[in-house]
């Protein structure tokens, strides 16, 4: 009863940290390195949050933490206000069902020796043991129709390799929704499919969000698709395992506050060559990619930041709030200072 009245975020992450152990190539070499650093996020029912960051910054690791596939070293994860790992080391079954993960590689995610029928049967059966076979099959077909695979009967007895990448992504969506989730974490769901099909998968996610009121966390390295899907939602910009800026997408586009966000926005290609020529250069010191293992004290973006000073290289950089955005930067950059 209490849960029905709960109005807050469906998932909250509070100062979540994850580190991995890296073994060396010679004897006696072993090192912990910090992948996610002090991640705090709130996801509300039915909202869309895009998590954007460059390759290797920890996006998939964060997706795994949110879906309960990876337990953080420290920090709290709350599901509907209750701590997920309080009683179980793997989180409760309810949480596992309510929060689904769709991974980038649809081929690896689907067992190649199972037909679509078998792949969709199992989660529906597990979710409700009282269903008859007829009811299960009806639901399977309804889910295939919902994700745009019609006529559904044609797909049921195919194997994953007989489908295209876009169709396999839709099967993953059909499998995820059969557990009636409240949140779907989609990790780069369109990066392995044809550009021409990407929009239709993004539109499918928007539709599932609206029609089934499922909150989506869309993980990507591509700001353009994030802008499209989260146009009415929120965005978190990640850099080397930290969230640098967290706000509504509209606020981020009209008033980017972190120097890294500004660099990201100016790196998005503009189709008109005239406008592109007039645009300012990407405002960063170096194009070299930094690595998580080399992260030092202070702001991890400081080595590439045009505005960095001595104080940016020390300690933990706190978040500051500006226009309902959380920004992990000590500087309040004025317009005229923009690169
Ligand atoms: N199980 C693991 N053991 C050790 N290191 C790992 C493990 N999983 C990920 N890492 C490391 O953690 C860092 C972040 O990886 P992650 O896959 O989360 O990045 P990502 O942002 O999803 O990258 P991409 O955009 O390429 O998918 C990388 O340096 C990666 O090598
Ligand atoms: Mg990844």
Counting DSSP E segments of at least 2 residues, the number of strands comes to 12
What is the CA-atom radius of gyration, in angstroms?
21 Å
CATH homologous superfamily heading of the domain at 2-113 and 159-257:
P-loop containing nucleotide triphosphate hydrolases
Mean pLDDT figure: 88
Largest sheet: 8 strands, mixed
Give the % helix: 25-40%
The number of helices is 13
At the first level of CATH, what is the class of the domain at 2-113 and 159-257? Alpha Beta
Q: From the helix content, strand content and strand pairing, which structural class follows?
A: alpha/beta
What is the gist of this entry?
This protein is of the alpha/beta class. It is built from 13 helices and 12 strands. The radius of gyration is 21 Å and the shape is globular.
Textual characterization of the structure:
By secondary structure, the protein is of the alpha/beta class. Helices cover 32% and strands 22% of the residues. The strands form two sheets. Strands 6-7-8-3-9-10-12-11 form an eight-stranded mixed β-sheet, sandwiched between helices. Strands 2-1-4-5 form a four-stranded antiparallel β-sheet. Helix 9 links the parallel strand 7 and strand 8 (215-220). The site of magnesium ion has 3 residues, from helix 2.
């Amino acid at each position: 009863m209490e849960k029905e009245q709960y109005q807050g975020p469906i998932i909250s992450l509070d100062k979540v940290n994850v580190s991995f152990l890296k073994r060396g190539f010679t004897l006696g070499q072993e090192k912990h390195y910090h992948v996610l650093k002090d991640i705090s996020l709130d996801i509300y029912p039915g909202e869309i949050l895009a998590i954007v960051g460059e390759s290797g910054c920890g996006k998939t690791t964060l997706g795994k933490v949110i879906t309960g596939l990876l337990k953080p070293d420290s920090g709290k994860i709350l599901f509907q206000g209750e701590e997920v790992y309080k009683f179980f080391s793997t989180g409760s079954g309810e949480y596992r069902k309510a929060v689904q993960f769709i991974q980038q590689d649809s081929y690896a995610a689907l067992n190649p020796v199972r037909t679509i029928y078998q792949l969709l049967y199992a989660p529906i059966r597990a979710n409700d043991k009282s269903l008859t076979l007829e009811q299960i099959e009806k639901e399977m077909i309804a889910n295939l129709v919902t994700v745009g695979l019609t006529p559904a009967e044609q797909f049921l007895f195919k194997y994953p390799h007989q489908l295209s990448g876009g169709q396999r992504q839709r099967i993953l969506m059909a499998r995820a929704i059969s557990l009636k989730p409240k949140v779907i974490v989609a990790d780069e769901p369109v990066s392995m499919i044809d550009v021409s099909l990407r929009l239709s998968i993004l539109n499918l996610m928007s539709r599932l969000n609206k029609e089934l009121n499922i909150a989506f966390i869309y993980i990507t390295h591509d700001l353009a698709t994030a802008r499209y899907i989260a146009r009415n939602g929120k965005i978190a910009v990640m850099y080397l395992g930290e969230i640098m800026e967290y706000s509504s997408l509209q606020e981020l586009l009209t008033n980017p506050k972190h120097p890294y966000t500004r660099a990201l926005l100016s790196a998005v290609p503009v189709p008109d060559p005239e406008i592109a020529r007039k645009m300012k250069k990407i405002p960063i010191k170096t194009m070299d990619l930094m690595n998580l293992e080399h992260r030092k004290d202070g702001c991890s973006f400081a080595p590439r930041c045009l505005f960095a000073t001595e104080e940016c290289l020390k300690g933990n950089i706190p978040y500051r709030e500006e226009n309902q955005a959380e920004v992990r930067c000590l500087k309040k950059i004025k317009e005229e200072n923009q690169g």
